[in-house]
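pls ignore typos typing on phone
flavin-adenine dinucleotide + seq
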Amino acid sequence: MSSDAQTQPLDVVVVGAGFAGMYAIWKLRQSGLRLKVIEAGSDVGGTWYWNRYPGARCDITSMEYSYGFSEALQQEWEWTEIMAAQPEILSYAQHVAERFDLRKDIDFDTRVTGVHYSDDTGLWEITTDNGREYQARFCIMATGCLSVPNTPVIEGQETFAGEVYHTGNWPTEGVDFSGKSVGIIGTGSSGVQSIPVIAREARHLTVFQRTPNYNLPANNAPLPDDYQTKIKTNYSAVREAQRHSQIGVSEFSRGLGGLGSYPEPEEEILRTTEEERQRVLDEEGFEAIRRYNDLALSPEANEMACDMFREQVARVVSDPETAEGLMPRGYPYGCKRPVIDIGYFETFNRDNVTLVDLRRGGIERITPTGVETAQGHFEFDVLVYATGFDAMTGALLRMDIRGRGGRSLAEHWEHGPKTYLGLQMSGFPNLFTVTGPGSPSVLSNMLVSIEQHVDWISDCINHLDQKGASRIEPDPDAEEAWVRHVFEIADGTMLTSESCNSWYLGANIPGKPRIFMPYVAGVGVYREICDGVVADGYRGFEISAG
Ligand code: FAD
Ligand code: NAP
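k done
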């Protein structure tokens, strides 16, 4: 047992010290709760601690992708770019940890393996890979939606003789690619960000691409002074606007760059002529695809915009065969998490970059010297997996979480994740998830969603303590109804289209139930629902004395 926990159970154990776990410390301390955060990594930052691959940066303006809980913090911190790179975001996390003295409540280098509810004591018993044990009244899973790197099983992968890396678990000391030939598998956001940078460093880069994306240009730049002044002068209004928006970005950043900051699309592509579309493409290039407002509603409109996108690929990429290989086909624009890039397509004009379009013949096996495909063998010294994550449920299911009567979370989620509001599961009293499936989560600016969830959970614990109650868990009917609601509003949108294999649906992990996991109605609507539930006396939850 943790030395602290030996004498007396803790009030709260938080698993994970990314932005969610860090904020939980600050917030729960306000109520004087005794808590401990358990983190597998050696420092704070979560995503930004693990994803140190070259080119990693956020895709939302940093002045909005940052904490809003402290006016002093948001005034004193200076971002240097519109969308900060990983080292700067990690420095920000470290600054927050120091400023609020967070590390003293974190046990690092400790991975939680078991989280068991005791029916006898009403406490959670937490076990870890280094033998430390904890007991707590409440358990908050701040384990991240994108924290379990996915390495696909490929025949022969263990025989590869060179260096092997995964973008989601990048070495702290970095990787020197100079003079080396590199193979990279995967062209999602992580691949798209790292490929241009690795191409500049390596002798040669071979890109193994299974599905090309409809990437948009990041339009990153040094942070404009006038924008910084505007945001800092209006920060409380910015944060308030975020909280009631669709994805957690305010109109103060409109037109700047990054997700959520694009101008509202105003034109219907179905009303345009071929001539007009050509002119728009000349003027706007890849950005043309986001100026139309009928792409979500009409497959025909969507396909017209996709045609424009493909034409732009052909305009940018000199070699026609490579250009054809980089053109997305067969699924609509907008059904996956948008990928934004800095010079991605131009990278394929370099002499030292080869595209292997796996649609023309897939990977057969990995060999000691490279990758064997149906199109031939490709050799390299270093293999990089940019193959994503077991998203949203991965970190939770990797722990042995057992609720009342010893029932496991794996059993509860056998047919896909079931939660009430993405905050709790029935049968798992006093266990909360931050940005869990069934909440806006990965469809939003995550910092906004994290603060909302942690605030809600903290208020909930205070409410129980004030009432002298000891347990809260969802009523199974409320949970079922929420799961149905989450499904119904996603159903029929592009996000659940049959032709779309996104990680939102779990489609990237063999055997994972194909269920759309996040809640699409937006952070503003969702916040109102959560607040309404509280106003109605925690409608849908069972609260009891134990
Ligand atoms: P994480 O940051 O994932 O932290 C979870 C922590 O829990 C990790 O440190 C992990 O080690 C720990 N943990 C997990 N399981 C255990 C266990 N069993 N025992 C102990 N510790 C455990 N979101 C945006 O909104 N905008 C962006 O621009 C953006 N960019 C991203 C870029 C990349 C490369 C990635 C991978 C994600 C990005 N995201 C972005 C999503 C990002 O994950 C969130 O924004 C946010 O950082 C999540 O914070 P978190 O604390 O919830 O989770
Ligand atoms: P991802 O979007 O899941 O992309 C994984 C890539 O690997 C895809 O191209 C996938 O191809 C490919 N792949 C997987 N298994 C493969 C196999 N067996 N053979 C060949 N290719 C394979 O993962 P990610 O790029 O790490 O991004 C995940 C999420 O993290 C993003 O959507 C975003 O939310 C977040 N992120 C954000 C940023 C940012 O810009 N701020 C950067 C990185 C990550 P298929 O598409 O065919 O499956």
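Confidence is low (pLDDT under 50) at residues 1-6. The domain at 10-148+390-539 is CATH 3.50.50.60 (FAD/NAD(P)-binding domain). more later
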